[in-house]
Write a structure and sequence with these properties.
two-stranded antiparallel ribbon; 73 residues; binds zinc ion; two-stranded antiparallel sheet; 27% strand; alpha+beta
Amino acid sequence: MINAARYFWLPVADDSSGCGLVRHAFRGRRADADVAESAHCGRTFAMATPSEMDWICAPTCTECNETLKARQP
Ligand SMILES: [Zn+2]
């Protein structure tokens, strides 16, 4: 199924970053996301509506990044 391979990046509240936000990768589509979703790194986060500044300041989750890279054909 093509949809199963879809994912999206979203900055969510995560104290492991200095600015309190980390950009994680989630399965599916943002429009279909529930209140909380589990990211590719295995942790669950509450979905947020990030501002433009959130996108700029939130670092990318390295675990999500590695997981997605490992899945590339
Ligand atoms: Zn992550």
